[in-house]
Each structure stands twice: as C-alpha cells, then as structure tokens.
Design goal:
By secondary structure, this protein is mostly helical. It folds into 2 domains: 43 residues, no CATH class; 64 residues, no CATH class. Helix content is 51%, strand content 9%. The protein is built from 5 helices and 2 strands, in the order H-H-H-H-E-E-H. Strands 1-2 form a two-stranded antiparallel ribbon. Helix 2 packs antiparallel against helix 3. The longest helix has 22 residues. It is extended and about 55 Å long. The two termini are 34 Å apart.
Length: 119
C-alpha cells in the first residue's frame, strides 16, 4: 500500500488526495479474483475504456492468415485448438504504441546488458 501511495503521489494530477481513494484501492487489491477486481475497478472508474489485449498490435501490423490453417472450433477440447499460421505480416503504423514500446524495451535491454557487462 505504501508503494501504491507513492505512485499515486507521482502521477496524481488532479485535486484528489490519497485519503480520498485509499479505501477504494484497498478494496480493489483485496478482491478474491481478477473478475471481482475488474468489477470493482469498473465501479470506481466507469469511464475507463474496455481492455483489448490485441489493440496495440492490430494498430501496428496487418496479419494475413492461410485460411486452410484456421481450425474449426472443437468444444470438447478447446485448449487443443492450434493457432493459425500467419502467411504474411506487414507494417501498418511504425509510429504506433506497439512499435514505440518495442523500441523502448530494446533500449532498456541494451542498457541493462551494458550494466551487466560492466560488472
């Protein structure tokens, strides 16, 4: 909770103070599972957009799939459905969040590896 309070202090740009949100945050953090946690977050922040785990990559790249590789759903063995093969992947937007994240991650990795080499 101390870390959360410190992060809140760094990113807070509004008029709220930690005491205004502490009980909401404690409730979210003590939720019994991720579904309950998301429900509490949505109740606390109703204008928060839906999370789409594929949004950034779909904004950055175009994927074309071999239609013959797209499996038919198998309700008896859903975990065994193979992922389709990508025939072609092309760039849609090199200035997208996904590309910028990848670039920042590479820079961070290079910095860390440089520091490790120095040891």
């Amino acid at each position: 909770m101390e870390a959360a309070e410190n992060i809140f202090g760094l990113v807070n740009k509004g008029k709220a103070v930690w005491n205004d949100i502490q009980s909401d945050f404690e409730g979210i953090m003590s939720a019994s599972n991720s579904n309950e946690r998301m429900k509490l977050i949505r109740n606390t922040c109703p204008n928060m957009p839906e999370y789409n785990e594929d949004q950034w990559i779909n904004e950055a790249l175009v994927f074309e799939r071999d239609k013959s590789e797209i499996p038919e759903p198998n309700p008896t063995r859903p975990a065994m459905i193979p992922r389709p093969k990508f025939v072609d992947i092309s760039v849609k937007d090199i200035n997208s969040h996904w590309f910028r994240f990848q670039s920042a991650a590479k820079k961070q990795l290079a910095m860390v590896l440089g520091k490790i080499d120095a040891l």
